Hints:
- It is a single chain.
- With 467 residues, this protein is of the alpha+beta class.
- The chain has a domain at 3-208 and 312-417.
- Helix content is 44%, strand content 15%.
- It has helices at residues 3-10, 13-25, 28-38, 49-63, 66-75, 83-91, 95-112, 188-196, 216-220, 302-310, 313-324, 336-364, 373-390, 393-399, 406-417, 448-466, and strands at 129-137, 154-156, 159-165, 170-177, 203-207, 227-231, 238-240, 247-250, 256-264, 273-280, 288-292, 445-447.
- The strands form two sheets. Strands 1, 3, 4, 5, 6, 7, 8, 9, 10 and 11 form a ten-stranded mixed β-sheet that branches. It has a two-stranded parallel ribbon with strand order 2-12.
- Strand 9 (256-264) and strand 10 form a beta hairpin.
- The chain is globular.
Amino acid sequence: xxxxxxxxxxxxxxxxxxxxxxxxxxDDERLQGIWxxxxxxxxxxxxxxxxxxxxxxxxxxxxxxxxxxxxxxxxDSTLETSVQAAYGKLGRTPVAVSQGxxxxxTRRLRELFPDWACWQTPASLRAFRVLxxxxxxxxxxxxxxxxxxxxxxxLLGGRALVAIDWQTGLAVAMRGDVDGDANDVKHCGELVPxxxxxxxxxxxxxxxRGFCDLRQPEHFTRRPxxxxxxxxxxxxxxxxxxxxxxxxxTNELGQSIAETWGWLGSEKDKRRRRVRRIELVRPDADxxxxxxxxxxxxxxxxxxxxxxxxERWEIERLFQKVTEVFGLSHLIxxxxxxxxxxxxxxxxxxxxxxxxxxxxxxxxDREPTDISTEMLFRDVTRDLTAWNTLLDPAHTVDHFAxxxxxxxxxxxxxxxxxxCWEDSWQASRPQTIHRKTPRQKTRTHNSVQRMLEAAAxxxxxxxxxxx
Length: 467
């Protein structure tokens, strides 16, 4: 490499480090393997799956527009087809490919994640890997498809059930559904075993009240040693065991905590199981009632379980950042499959920034939460744009040609990110919650998939009438 490019590379350690992380998680050979494994009856022609991933990644990180990314890569001969063909390829991407992309790429990112940046669970739960589950509907789909033009209200694309690893904050896997009105819970039986295969230690599965029934605990406890912690929903009756005395205590805020033991479900139901009920009394809000199969109150204090459940809100924060920071609010495609592919890639970009933030926090001896994800991602995109402006593609390919081993790459990342710090990355202090005035809510979203299915049925009826 000439002196000029070397000088430019030395001035952009953040861009270089991020690209090493991306190359390690998303190298072309690995992406092609994901496609071959999950593509089903789809096939590659001119636009390969690795090319589609990089086109979409550039749209999210550099151009903030799919059309601009496609046209730009048309000009430099990276994209050898029309823009319409690129949109068509994006809209036909199988849901299984989007799921495999997140799962297998995040597996590589977990190898790079610095141990220093992992959160520690309370001592009583140190033996468990805490996994949090929740669903996300993809909104703000543009009404470009013929069947959706003129539809009232907003449109829903796909929907996905996502699992995150609380210790690292990484989105581990997802199960997608092309119907934005689908119930997330039905995918739990497929997602939980997939996530459990990623971790050797026993898992503690944490979820909201939507997962409180007699079927989901069977999925959560299928592996030996696994336990669950869900918020109680009255649709399933709790039958108290009167022979066991209730326990009462208070937390650090002086709020009362009541613990009782009993069964979830009636005696006639074979799925009935022994559980512990924990109720936190809140004078100014609804009580928090948790159900768990961690029955020993001495070994697993209620305060620790309430703390872990409060941390379930991290997955909601992740969804907010994926939407507002990583580009999910500007959907490139209009079909449900295209929205799920973009959602998977946005989650993956969030995971990349989590890894980068962990290294920077370790180098600066700061808490990871003290670094703003939004401001860090803004500077990452700025530096990547500068990199692509100053350096020829040939120089970039030459610089990243030899991918080092995982230990060598971790050392390189420590060195690169130790040189990175901007005062603007300092996260703002948590703001006081300003509660909004309650208002009546009316549903204004329709599922794109259901509209497409209705249009297909209508078209079939017209053809039959002509016969």
